[in-house]
Amino acid sequence: MREEYRREMACQIVHDSWHARGFTTSYLLRLDGEVAGYGSVGGAPRDPGDTLKELYLLPRFRGSALPVVRELIGASGARTIEAQTNDALLLLMLLDCAVEVTSPTILFADGLTTRLDAGGTEFRRLTDAEREGAFPHTHEEAGEYGLVCDGAIVATGGLTFHYNPPYADLYMEVAAPYQRRGLGSYLVQELKRVCYKLGCVPAARCSDGNAASRRTLQRAGMFPCGRIVRGTIAR
Fold first, then answer.
1. DSSP string computed for 38-86
2. pLDDT tens across 22-41, in order?
3. Which partner for 18 in 5, 23, 64, 103 could form a disulfide, CB atoms 3.0-4.6 Å apart?
4. Under a CB-based contact definition with an 8 Å cutoff, are residues 201 and 191 in contact?
5. Structure pTM?
């Protein structure tokens, strides 16, 4: 049923790897004695682990989704619900069952092939020694790829594969003296090319308040495709 859930989503599932990493507990859902679907509750290692993260119901049972979810909440002890807006069923259950709803994270999908130029800056894979000696990073770890200008590494980035296949998560960071020059967007553009060569589909996310990252991604052809919405379950 998880594979069917992935197929129906047809987009990056941000916390897909939580299942394999043991961060969730999954519950089999039955309705009138028949297997109706499953739900998964969990959280990141330092979190309480009481967030309803995933819900799948076979199509013929979806009309009864709300009472089934209320039973799941009671059995699991879930206290919050977190849904992607492109996960229609779980989002509707969140709006039915939760209060204090917030939307802190924006999801991005590739929408446009760009041809940005970085004025002679070189994009290439970095050696381990170069990564260790790169500029101080404050938001991301030093990535596998970088931009080199006048012999100095001015930006790094890479891909992680915690999303569901074939989606890859792009990340990057630009050294403070080189920000606001378009280098971040150029780096994202080149990381997209690497991603496609690996047979993957680029995706990304940033916080709602990070206007600079949002502009950087959009200049590189990555456009908002959804949000992560979170709410506290009303008792």
1. EEEEE--TTS-S-EEEEEEE-GGGGGGHHHHHHHHHHHHT--EEEEETT
2. 999 999 999 999 999 999 99
3. 23
4. no
5. 0.91
